[in-house]
Fold this protein.
Amino acid sequence: MLALVCRECGKEYPTQDIHVCELCFGPLEVKYDYAAIKQVMTREKVASGPHSLWRYIDLLPVEGTNFIGLHAGFTPLVHAKNLGAFLGLDNLYIKNDCVNHPTLSFKDRVVAIALTRARELGFETVACASTGNLANSVSAHAASAGMKCYVFIPGDLEAAKVLGNLIYRPNVVEIEGNYDDVNRLCSEIAGERHWAFVNINIRPYYAEGSK
């Protein structure tokens, strides 16, 4: 990683726990040194890597190898023959991310990256605003890594979505209001406490897990 760069105005920032440009409030994205990556990344290296997203380590925003979430990613492509025939496509494949580890959601990929980077930045507590899948994944990965975890949810969230969290023993905080209210509160807390909110102050790294 070279820097975080504003998508709107191009201002660069250090690769820390920041996510918004102080000049134009644009979102920050990870900037890579592609010349250096080209020197070390080969097709053979990728093919011989683990059957997880970590085989693409050279293109991910982490600095070490102390990974959280060892088995996320590398989900299969499924040949959608019938849908392909309907659309007139012979080779239509659909990415099946519902077999991700450990919570069967594509969120496992983004959370694995976010928590790995959060630990590199010295965070011991992770958190998120969520209405379901993200809370499950953050709770599971935090439990695996031995990190403290807080999940903030709307107070009227269905019980079935909350129960999945509880097996990982996070601190669940119900907020009176909708998801926007929850997210607004989390943004305030992120500015006051040394907590890694995966979809707020760690968002630039979190977003890279969606690649």
